[in-house]
Amino acid sequence: MHNATNPYSPGAGRSPFELAGRTALTNDFDLLISRAAAGRTDRGIVLHGLHGVGKTVLLNDFRRRAENAGFLVVSLEGRDADGGPKAVRAKLARGLLQAGRKANSRGNTPALAGALGTIASFASGLQVSGIDVGVGERHGRGDSGAFAVDLEETVEDTAVALAERGSALIFVVDELQNLDAGLLAALLGAQHQAGQRDWPFYLVAAGLPNLPAALTASQRYAEGLFTYRSVGALDREDSASALVAPALEQGVSYDPEALDLLLNAAGGYPYFLQEYGSAAWESAPEKRITADDARIAVEIGRAQLDQGFFPLRWRRATKAEREFLRLMAIDGPGGSSTATLAARAGKKMTSMTMTRGSLIRKGIIYAPELGQVSFTVPGMADYVRRVTA
Ligand SMILES: Nc1ncnc2c1ncn2[C@@H]1O[C@H](COP(=O)(O)OP(=O)(O)O)[C@@H](O)[C@H]1O
Ligand SMILES: [Mg+2]
Fold first, then answer.
1. Is the pLDDT of residue 103 over 90?
2. Per residue in 362-375, pLDDT tens?
3. Could you tell me which of 212, 181, 285, 224 has the C-alpha nearest to residue 44?
4. Per-residue pLDDT at 80
């Protein structure tokens, strides 16, 4: 069928036709919104899971819900594409300025005018300018030069001003594990204070499966700050719906055998469902997707993944890192013990620490527990075996 009508959306952060199987999570977030609007504070939310399960599109959906509720939302990504910690802080300041302008256009109050001044001071301290909030810098708030203090004051003034009108301040942070330690500590500190002092401020974040453990390790009180939700593969019914619903809307149906073939290939992973659905759409000549079409689609879909989703990580690995990944792939998708890897390589464990560290920083592997490593990408073990065979 025609490319132009293809309703599937393979690609990082691309919104799917519908968020199949995520109602429980969107309900969690709607509850946070209604509690916040009613002036009751709540925990933030942390989503954790592998790459390609749909965390980013969930955060985008949360952001839209919060904006529809009239909340102020500032979005951040753990690692800025073209800069280090400074760029991420600058983005936070710009987001606050923009959000502040929006709030101002909905009507000013003395508290909001004060908050805008604090935001202006905070931004100016980070050398961010060019977005006029219509209020001058406020001396003595958000301008101490100590980042964590300034952030906390900015969050306090903004959230308290928003509370007056049943609104709230939300920071949406994707790939939270990539934030530098200073910014992370400041954000956790602000969330902690918000909970203690009833400011409507919420950190809503996503990251890799070990994010809850990493947060607790960085601040012992982090456990109580968030509702932690694991985001994983979809069950059979929701996976089927992710394939069938977008097609049905255009009068296109799947033969049962075709659906089975595609569902088996995708293993419930949203990214794979989109890739295989997209390939099925392009392979089928008629408005009925047959088993033959599906067989071709599985081939094409896998080839697409082998050209995009997997090599995106593989290409970033150095020669030594690739060897490390090859040794891991032997253990399959369940992960490896670092002791086993060292034995396999015939090396001392300490000599592999650097490679392990750089693979973690590149987001290709993570440490689910002490002495263990796993791929951050579903299906990566098989891919590594294919490319190194
Ligand atoms: N609930 C869902 N139903 C159907 N497709 C989804 C769902 N969640 C995500 N997707 C698709 O999966 C892919 C990966 O989503 P993304 O949010 O980038 O994942 P992550 O951030 O976890 O790596 C995208 O192609 C997206 O359209
Ligand atoms: Mg993502």
1. no
2. 999 999 999 999 99
3. 224
4. 61
Its pTM surpasses 0.90: yes
When the candidates are 3.40.50.720, 3.40.309.10, 3.40.50.1010, 1.10.8.60, the CATH number that belongs to 234-307 is: 1.10.8.60
Q: Which residues contact 312 (CB under 8 A, 6 or more apart)?
A: none
Burial of 165 (0-12, 13-18, 19+ CB in 10 A): middle
**Residue to substitute in 15, 29, 57, 376 for testing ligand 1 pocket (most ligand atoms within 8 angstroms of CB):** 57
What is the CB < 6 Å shell around ligand 1?
9-14, 16, 19-22, 49, 51-57, 242, 270-271, 273-274
Question: What atom in ligand 1 is closest to the CA of residue 231?
Answer: 22
Tell whether the model's pLDDT for residue 147 goes beyond 90.
Answer: yes
Largest CA distance in the chain: 70
The whole-number pLDDT of residue 205 equals 98
Do residues 71 and 33 touch, judged by C-beta distance below 8 A?
yes
What pLDDT, on a 0 to 100 scale, did the predictor assign at position 1? Answer: 87
Ligand 2 midpoint to CA 175 (Å): 7
CATH number (3.30.360.10, 1.25.60.10, 1.20.1290.10, 3.40.50.300) of 23-230 reads: 3.40.50.300
| Nearest ligand atom owner, CA of 234 | 1
CA 52–ligand 2 middle distance (angstroms): 7
Tens of pLDDT, residues 41-75: 889 999 999 999 999 999 999 999 999 999 999 99
Around ion ligand 2, which residues have CB less than 5 A away? Answer: 56
